[in-house]
Specification:
Strand content: 5-15%
Pfam families: DUF6824
Number of helices: 20
Helix content: 40-55%
Mean pLDDT: 78
Number of strands: 9
Radius of gyration: 24 Å
Protein name: DUF6824 domain-containing protein
CATH architecture of the largest domain: 3-Layer(aba) Sandwich
Distance between the termini: 72 Å
Oligomer: single chain
GO molecular function: phosphatidylinositol bisphosphate binding
Organism: Cylindrotheca closterium
InterPro entries: CRAL-TRIO_dom_sf, CRAL/TRIO_N_dom_sf, DUF6824
CATH superfamily of the largest domain: CRAL-TRIO lipid binding domain
CATH class of the largest domain: Alpha Beta
Order of helices and strands: EHHHHHHHHEEHHEHEHHEHHHEHHHEEH
CATH topology of the largest domain: Phosphatidylinositol Transfer Protein Sec14p
Structural class: alpha/beta
């Protein structure tokens, strides 16, 4: 049976589901955690990594250790916030920023002060660090510094879009290195899969830029990802069929230093290792250092699953991860028919909004053609295979979050958090808007609407049936223009 590696000297409390923390799925046969019972040749090569994780867990208090186990077993609670808690954290954040500013922050302040002072931007770092203000401020400064390094100073004070990726980045994105699972885990957390077989064949800067785009621009705008964290699953299955090339230590450290600055909290991290010839030794030689570079919070939420593909999938199910939509089937084959469906769905949603993707100056027709062609090819392939995960067949019902904007005169709309942020956002730009010539004001309202869209903010209006419906970008722009005029009249 598979061995989900753990140590019996790690104390743990019963989880909130009422059962002990073991690798037992109520609907499947138990998965043994006994290394001798697993009886896999070469399993001993994982011992250094196991001992490292055990040592880190032993540094925690009993309460911290129990929280880590709850998160790994998909019974942990999301970050609880109150308006007063957020207000105090943001005030403390501002005070610390005044004392700890770096060059990248100064550049961002010069380019777009509203961006780095936006409460929603700063709140991402606070949530990633469980409202530890000191860590949050340091991470924001490091994030801006790495953003400037890998994307350029001119992009440090705005959201990163698809057009900010170069050709090599886009090829890596379309290679299927990352996969966002269609379903979420038992507690509603998003699940990100990644395939390590390509690591030794790519450049660290390409992976960093793609990781930033996927983690920050696609996943993080979802408030649930911010408050509940992200689940990651590593697969040693090969996507290319080429011989595995192990990444060097310089690659690992470069990528780890950059991604540590991203405001993403990993609530559990799973490493799936199939017991094929020489596979364990090869994977352990680079996965051990990767895990060792993680922050303590993420490190102690790491779990290795060793065995056959069926045993590994049973183990994942026992940790609350649904297996019906995994990117690897029960035979260990990559499910090519769904590997990019998540990305095409994202692109479709951005196209529907007609403003969420800001095209960078100098972007080429070839870039547009590349993605249009890739999108059509994948859609045609999926239709031909008769798979139900066809990107453009699904039209999920949109529901407003507290970050979105509700249009209307009712009490709900007036008191909605997103509306308050919307008014403050436009108040910061109203003076500039009033000074523009009349023939340039429309262009400015388009830019402001685009800026909101890149932050994942959407506009909703109430229908006759009392439900909230998302409106088109052109209508949203009109609302931006209308409110700017209203603010000018109040002056």
């Amino acid at each position: 049976m598979a061995s989900s590696i753990q140590h019996h000297n790690w104390s743990c409390r019963p989880c909130k589901g009422g059962h002990q923390h073991d690798d037992t799925d109520h609907n499947t046969a138990p998965i043994t955690t006994n290394r001798q019972a697993a009886n896999h040749d070469g399993l001993h090569v994982m011992q250094p990594t196991e001992e490292m994780l055990a040592s880190e867990l032993n540094k925690l208090s009993l309460e911290e250790r129990a929280e880590a186990f709850d998160d790994i077993h998909c019974v942990g609670e999301e970050l609880k916030e109150t308006p007063g808690m957020i207000q105090k954290a943001l005030a403390d954040f501002e005070e610390m920023v005044k004392k700890d500013r770096n060059a990248a922050y100064e550049i961002a302040m010069t380019q777009n002060r509203a961006y780095v002072e936006d409460p929603s931007f700063r709140l991402k770092f606070l949530r990633a660090n469980m409202h530890d203000v000191g860590k949050s401020v340091r991470q924001m400064m490091n994030s801006l510094q790495h953003k400037a390094k890998y994307f350029g100073n001119d992009k440090v004070a705005r959201e990163i879009t698809l057009d900010d990726l170069n050709e090599e980045d886009k090829n890596l994105l379309l290679s299927g290195f990352y996969h966002v699972q269609e379903e979420r885990d038992r507690t509603g957390r998003a699940i990100l899969h990644w395939f390590g077989g390509m690591l030794g064949r790519i450049k660290p800067e390409n992976l960093i830029r793609v990781a930033y785009f996927v983690w920050i621009s696609i996943l993080l705008p979802d408030p649930v990802v911010q408050t509940k964290g992200l689940v990651t699953v590593y697969h040693n299955a090969s996507r290319t069929g080429k011989e595995f090339v192990m990444p060097g230590m310089n690659f690992i450290m470069t990528v780890s230093n950059a991604t540590a600055s991203f405001p993403v909290r990993f609530s559990s991290m799973h490493y799936c290792l199939q017991t094929t010839e020489a596979n364990l030794a090869l994977n352990n030689s680079f996965l051990g250092p990767i895990v060792n570079t993680l922050p303590l919070y993420s490190k102690v939420r790491s779990r290795f699953h060793v065995g056959s593909i069926i045993e590994i999938q049973y183990a994942l199910r026992g940790h609350g991860i649904p297996t019906d939509t995994l990117p690897v089937d029960m035979n260990g084959n990559i499910r090519e028919d769904i590997c990019l469906a998540w990305f095409y769905n994202h692109q479709r949603e951005q196209a529907e909004n007609n403003c969420s993707i800001v095209r960078a100056p100098g972007s080429t027709k070839e870039d547009k053609a590349l993605f249009s062609s890739s999108l059509r090819t994948a859609q045609t392939r999926q239709v031909a295979r008769g798979n139900r995960h066809v990107p453009f067949d699904v039209n999920p019902s949109a529901k407003p979050t507290e970050a979105d904007i509700l249009l209307g005169r009712g009490r709900v709309a007036q008191s909605w958090p997103g509306n308050s942020n919307f008014r403050r956002f436009l108040e910061k730009h109203s003076a500039e808007y009033d000074m523009l010539p009349r023939n340039e004001r429309k262009r400015r309202t388009i830019e402001l609407t685009q800026e909101l869209g890149t932050k994942g903010i959407r506009f909703f209006e109430e229908t006759e049936s009392g439900e909230w419906a998302k409106i088109e970008c052109s209508e949203a722009r009109k609302k931006v223009s209308q409110l700017l005029r209203t603010l000018r009249k109040k002056k």
